[in-house]
Write a structure and sequence with these properties.
mainly alpha; flat
Length: 128
Amino acid sequence: MTLSASLNGAEQRRPSRLGRMLEDRLPYLIVAPAILILLLVGLFPLIYLLIVSFQRITMTENDTSFVGLLNYAELFRDARLWASLGHTAIVTAIALPLELLIGFLMAQLFIDRMPGRQLFVRCWCFRL
């Protein structure tokens, strides 16, 4: 058997079924630990919050008896909730259009040949 014949045989060898399956799923196996950690970091506090929200826990007492929706009823009767939601709506109504406008104008600096484009690009690159 010649050297070229042995090389051709090695080139034509197919990977095993397990090798192909591992190769197909390798990206998912690499990303899986990061996704699991993100889910644990995100889901655990959310589930704990929901459990605690149905208990009678205050800043001074640690009574974990079940109260049902009583905490939510008190929350929606509280004027501070509605005031804070109003403030949040005002800030959002002002900040969101401003951010969109500023982002659009900055995008135009990169697309069009506007005065000051090179100055902005050079200053921005030095920050990176």
